């Protein structure tokens, strides 16, 4: 009996010891897996930070900078034996490397390989100490840029939207990142179903997945929403307190210049090429572009064109193309498609009617005018024009001063509850401090500080730097619309008259009632128009601030359904781009540790 009991005791002790060891091993394995995942997450944060640092220039270039001179397919050490501390105690270490496996103009794909080690990385083990556990994973992530979803809307205003008029009709969607206000008026919004893509096989258009039925959207509330007519006024199609949509930043046009060069873009008038893909890159040419088309000699568009200075365009246009302006875009008189769609909109908002309209309109004329500064429509030198617009520019609800706080929306100091002193207050608004991030020594070590900037400089496009120039800008004034160069051929490319233009009013009109095209500005869209004919935009108007004053019988916005799908639609990457959320393409567990030649 004694021998039997002794045997049971020894067996129990051995079993307990084995179970303790197994339990400890299991815990160490879990810890190693957690360390490997921590390495992945830290590296993803490094990549995201690099994109942010280069956000207004080229987010993808920030990712490329992390690889230095390494070629596609070459592994680069990112983190070596990085300790993980818990209450000051090192619980293990991880080592991470990255490999760029694909580098395209609009996307970069990277492999992140991370190995977690317990108690420490092999090179940090003490004499006689062995690895208790290790775990390794490889995660493939893709970073990309694509057109912003602001182009899902016929009328989009970043700040506060104003639909003050009983005769305003938006045949499409309307949205503001701030409040949408209809006052005591009764505007009409028909809505436009939003799809994530459009496929085109040369004759048939197929819409992708439906993401929204469309209607009226606001980042805050919709004031007097019950007065809105049409589909947008119905409760199911009235979306308030929506997330903000990021507006593209056009501070740096380099990526669009590269696109214009790849596409071999040009503009022709009267059989004469008046512009290649980039205006202002040749020291012998000026920075500005003047374009006027007639029915017999229209402006012929061929792809995206970048103008480093100001753009002036009016008259008849044909072809398909976009104009990127590094300054203001002036539209002195109406713009009209020579061979535009046979109707401004599909007959109905149904999928079938929209696909049918797209098939008839796919190859018809299309113009996009995208300005880094302002879009100025009509005769802005006229005293009436200036009086009306000055009032809107100075409105506190329409403020453009870069002291707008964390939400970048003016007049939101009290938060959405409208009560000062509560948790949702935007305390940075109106504090007279330009709140931005600055480049650090860590950014310098990663190589993500762009040329011309140094440690301590403001990071363009961060914080309250709305226009991405790294400098605080005050409230817009009429002076921001004035020409920086005289209207003579020495300062303007294109088809400006040989004698120049002595007075802007000679070519500009207060009756510029028709705008065929899609117009974008990260500043103000200002338009004063009179006359008996309805004022209309056949395309879209996207702006940070909107100053539209119409003295016509009606104001119509007719959404160009060819904008549907953004980068996966007809226009592809010709629209202004923003960085997309990082996409995890693949996750796999490694049977061997790629960080070591031999795995013990």
Structural notes for this entry:
The chain has 600 residues and is of the alpha/beta class. The protein has a domain at 2-138 and 584-589. It is 16% helix and 32% strand. It has 6 helices and 33 strands. It has helices at residues 2-53, 59-65, 254-263, 351-361, 383-393, 441-446; strands at residues 75-86, 89-103, 107-118, 133-147, 155-157, 161-162, 168-171, 174-176, 180-181, 188-189, 194-195, 198-200, 205-207, 210-212, 216-218, 222-223, 238-239, 266-269, 272-275, 278-279, 288-293, 299-307, 311-325, 329-331, 335-337, 366-371, 375-377, 492-494, 514-530, 535-551, 555-559, 577-579, 583-589. Strands 1, 2, 3, 4, 32 and 33 form a 6-stranded antiparallel sheet that branches. Helix 1 (2-53) crosses helix 2. The two termini are 45 Å apart. The relative contact order is 0.14.
What does the secondary structure layout of this molecule look like, with pairings?
Elements: H1 2-53, H2 59-65, E1 75-86, E2 89-103, E3 107-118, E4 133-147, E5 155-157, E6 161-162, E7 168-171, E8 174-176, E9 180-181, E10 188-189, E11 194-195, E12 198-200, E13 205-207, E14 210-212, E15 216-218, E16 222-223, E17 238-239, H3 254-263, E18 266-269, E19 272-275, E20 278-279, E21 288-293, E22 299-307, E23 311-325, E24 329-331, E25 335-337, H4 351-361, E26 366-371, E27 375-377, H5 383-393, H6 441-446, E28 492-494, E29 514-530, E30 535-551, E31 555-559, E32 577-579, E33 583-589
Parallel strand pairs: 5-8, 5-30, 6-9, 7-10, 7-31, 8-15, 9-16, 15-17, 20-22, 21-23, 21-28, 22-23, 23-24, 23-25, 23-26, 24-27, 26-29, 27-29, 29-30, 30-31
Antiparallel strand pairs: 1-2, 2-3, 3-4, 4-32, 4-33, 11-14, 12-13, 18-19, 18-22
Helix pairs in contact: 1-2
């Amino acid at each position: 009996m004694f021998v039997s009991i002794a045997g049971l005791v020894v067996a129990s002790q051995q079993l307990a010891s084995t179970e303790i060891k197994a339990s400890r091993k299991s815990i160490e394995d879990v810890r190693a897996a957690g360390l490997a995942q921590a390495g992945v997450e830290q590296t993803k944060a490094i990549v995201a930070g690099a994109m942010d640092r280069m956000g207004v220039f080229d987010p993808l270039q920030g990712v490329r900078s992390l690889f230095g001179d390494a070629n596609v397919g070459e592994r680069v050490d990112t983190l070596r034996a990085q300790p993980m501390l818990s209450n000051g105690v090192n619980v293990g270490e991880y080592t991470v490397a990255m490999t760029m496996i694909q580098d395209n103009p609009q996307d970069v794909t990277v492999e992140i390989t991370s190995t977690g080690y317990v108690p420490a990385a092999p090179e940090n083990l003490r004499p006689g100490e062995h690895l208790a556990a290790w775990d390794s994973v490889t995660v493939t992530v893709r970073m990309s840029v694509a057109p912003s979803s602001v182009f899902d809307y016929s009328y989009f205003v970043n700040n506060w939207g104003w639909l003050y008029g009983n005769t305003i009709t938006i045949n499409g969607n309307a949205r503001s990142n701030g409040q949408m206000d209809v006052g005591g008026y009764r505007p009409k919004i028909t809505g436009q179903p939003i799809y994530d893509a459009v496929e085109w096989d040369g004759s048939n258009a197929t819409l992708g997945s439906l993401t929204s039925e469309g209607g009226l959207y606001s980042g805050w509330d919709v004031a007097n929403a019950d007065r809105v007519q049409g589909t947008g006024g119905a409760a199911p199609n009235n979306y308030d307190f929506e997330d903000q949509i990021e507006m593209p930043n056009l501070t740096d046009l380099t990526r669009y210049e590269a696109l214009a060069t790849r596409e071999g873009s040009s503009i022709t008038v009267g059989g004469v090429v008046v512009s290649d893909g980039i205006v202002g890159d040749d020291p012998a040419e000026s920075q500005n572009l003047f374009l006027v088309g007639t029915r017999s000699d229209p402006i012929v568009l061929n792809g995206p064109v970048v103008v480093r200075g100001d753009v002036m365009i009016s008259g008849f246009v044909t072809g398909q193309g976009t104009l990127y302006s590094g300054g203001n875009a002036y539209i002195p008189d109406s713009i009209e498609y020579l061979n535009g769609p046979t109707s401004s909109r599909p007959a109905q908002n149904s999928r079938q009617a929209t696909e049918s309209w797209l098939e008839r309109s796919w190859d018809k004329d299309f113009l996009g005018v995208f300005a880094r500064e302002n879009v100025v429509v009509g005769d802005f030198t006229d005293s009436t024009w200036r009086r009306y617009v000055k009032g809107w520019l100075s409105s506190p609800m329409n403020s453009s001063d870069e002291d707008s706080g964390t939400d970048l929306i003016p007049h939101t100091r009290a938060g959405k509850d409208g009560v000062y002193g509560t948790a949702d207050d935007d305390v940075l608004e109106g504090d007279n401090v330009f709140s931005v991030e600055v480049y650090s020594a860590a950014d310098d070590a990663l190589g993500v500080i762009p040329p011309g900037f140094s440690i301590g400089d403001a990071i363009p496009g961060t914080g309250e730097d709305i226009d991405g120039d790294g400098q605080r800008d005050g409230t817009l004034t009429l002076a921001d619309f004035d020409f920086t160069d005289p209207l003579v051929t020495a300062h303007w490319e294109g088809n400006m008259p040989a004698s120049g233009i002595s007075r802007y009013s000679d070519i500009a009109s207060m009756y510029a009632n028709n705008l065929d095209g899609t117009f974008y500005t990260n500043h103000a869209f200002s338009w004063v128009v009179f006359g008996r004919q309805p004022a209309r935009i056949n395309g879209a108007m996207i702006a940070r601030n909107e100053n539209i004053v119409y003295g016509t019988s009606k104001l119509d916005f007719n959404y160009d359904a060819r904008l549907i799908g953004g980068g996966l639609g007809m226009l592809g990457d010709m629209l202004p781009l923003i960085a997309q959320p990082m996409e995890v393409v693949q996750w796999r567990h490694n049977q061997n540790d790629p960080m070591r030649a031999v795995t013990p």
